[in-house]
Amino acid sequence: MPLRKSWRWIGAFAPDMMLCVAQARVGLVRRSWWAVWDGKTLHEGTRAPFALQLDEGEPIEAETGPTWTRKTPLRVRGTVLGRELDAPGLLDESHGRHPRRTSWLWSAGAGVTTGGDAVVWNLVEGMHPGENTVWVNGTPHRVDPPRFDGIEGVADLRFTALATRAAKENYLVLASDYEQPFGTFTGSLPIAGELAQGFGVMERHEALW
Questions:
Q1: Per-residue pLDDT of the chain (209 residues; tens, 9 = 90+)
Q2: HSE on the CB side for 166, CA within 13 Å?
Q3: 170: which residues sit within 8 A by CB, 6+ positions away?
Q4: SS3 helix, strand, coil % of the chain, rounded to 5?
Q5: Are 203 and 106 in contact (CB under 8 A)?
Q6: What InterPro entries would the database entry show (predicted)?
Q7: What's the distance, CA 62 to chain centroid?
Q8: Which residues, at least 6 apart from 35, have a Cβ–Cβ distance to it below 8 Å?
């Protein structure tokens, strides 16, 4: 039987700062990490040297077999590496017995449309089809599973990477190969329409767990 996995990932997306803070568990193995792009430099570590205040919006949940996820739009506030942060973001909480070999493409971000609507999105291929969601002014709208172009874009969004987290790890019984760049988005979102500005992450992940 596949090992039980769980993780909690927080992202915040602003023009001059983007970050993620996460904890994960695979069986008995636990890991934590954080990363901050401050507009010039990517900072990374295993234990975040800052605390965040999370104001949660309306979440969505999805299940596929023995796996579950909840995605929640956020307002993220705090002092991060000496600078004040007040930005939209996303909370990803997931757990279950995912297949021994699992791979996915993912996009999470936030921005403003040309019509002035605030948007947050969660788009994925390879995980739960029912978790694909676009929040418009805080209201969630489920959307059809999108088409990904690797980590270059998704559906009608194009992505420009600014700073990339990436690693290949192999512990024989557990292995991970991922890229997760912070960057900017142009183009349009399902339901919401064309972006005036958009910031967030793309991710490619192949896991043996």
A1: 889 999 999 999 999 999 999 999 999 999 999 999 999 999 999 999 999 999 999 999 999 999 999 999 999 999 999 999 999 999 999 999 999 999 999 999 999 999 999 999 999 999 999 999 999 999 999 999 999 999 999 999 999 999 999 999 887 778 999 999 999 999 999 999 999 999 999 999 999 99
A2: 8
A3: none
A4: 0, 70, 30
A5: yes
A6: DUF2804 (IPR021243)
A7: 16
A8: 19, 20, 42, 43, 44, 45, 165, 182
Owner of token pair 């605030």:
118
Q: What is the dihedral of CA 159, 17, 30, 50, to 10 degrees?
A: -170
* 116 alpha-carbon distance from chain centroid: 23
Pairing of strands 60-64, 67-80: antiparallel
CA–CA dist 94, 78 (Å, integer): 24
Q: What is the β-pairing status of strands 118-125 and 133-136?
A: antiparallel
Side-chain-side CA neighbours of 170 within 13 Å: the count stands at 2
Question: Are the C-beta atoms of residues 181 and 201 closer than 8 Å to each other?
Answer: yes
Instruction: Tell me the pTM.
Output: 0.96
